[in-house]
Design goal:
13 helices; 7-stranded mixed sheet; alpha/beta; Aspartate Aminotransferase, domain 2; 360 residues; single chain
Length: 360
Amino acid sequence: YVPVESTEALSQQTELPPGKIIKLDGNENPYGCSPKVYQALATCPYYHNYPDPEQRELRKALEKYTGLGYQHIVCGMGSDELIDLILRLFLKPGDEVINCPPTFGMYPFSTDVCGGRVVEVPRTEAFSLNLDSIKKALTERTKVIFVASPNNPTGGIATEKEIMELVDTEKIVVVDEAYFEFSNVTIADLVPGYPNLIVLRTFSKWAGLAGLRIGYGIFPVEIVKYLMKIKQPYNANATAQAAVLASLADIEYLRANVARIVKERERLFGKLKGLDWLKPYPSEGNFILCSVGYPPPCHSSPRPVGAKNLAKEVWQQLRKKGIFVRYFGTALLKDCLRISVGRPEDTDALIKALKEVKHD
């Protein structure tokens, strides 16, 4: 897994001042967090004390937000930590995890770290789940199936029917809803009815708290009991907890920003579609995946032998202009770029730069 770099690091690399950098590579919120977060962090009186290891106030606040009992909720240092905890709980060395690329890179990364074996079941040419292939890949050693919905980086949704088919396999099914607030499609309400269904969410995207590392999961109660035993006692630190509570007290502000991002996503999609050498894919997240120059090589349309890697070339040219988008370089995405939705002025600068890059 290759993480994105900070604005400060990009500034040093490019010798551009931070204010001149347009960062569209990390699916971060361009409007930042709620103003109430800054006030909460400035007035928190308990930085000298350890935070509550049971996360009581935080879980109660999330109970109100999700509509699901706090006994189903566990918080972590971003959903990344919860992915790791789930795998540590369920895997023995050599156990298998189903991964459906192209998707979030932390699933195979954490599987490897936990001694598991990643079983890759590529998505269809339309980037949908290949349910038949997933079922054929299951063995006695299969313990966990990961499904991101909306999927990062392709932006598509897994339907409830698809997820329930996977739940029926009786394997642990983890549905990563990191971008739920941008799609309003969730299966979280179903978790209490199934012993093997888990939903993960984060405050990094919609609430603008990526730098504070805080996420949560909705679990069957029996799984919560074990997760609370194996997690680090103080994994949700005082600043992160204060920030979440302040965010949940300012929901309307944050939802208004989400609406602005969704509106800008549609405008960005239209602008990208207007460039005949780009093919953007519809997205329910705060990002858009684009095929550059060729159809995506996903399965049946390989790039011609000897042809330039236009996606990488465009990525490099944009960097020189201070615009940073995500280039993966993996087999299924080598001709693709993922572009995070920024402010309207970011979209305008990006489209202008793309036209200049193509002209060059």
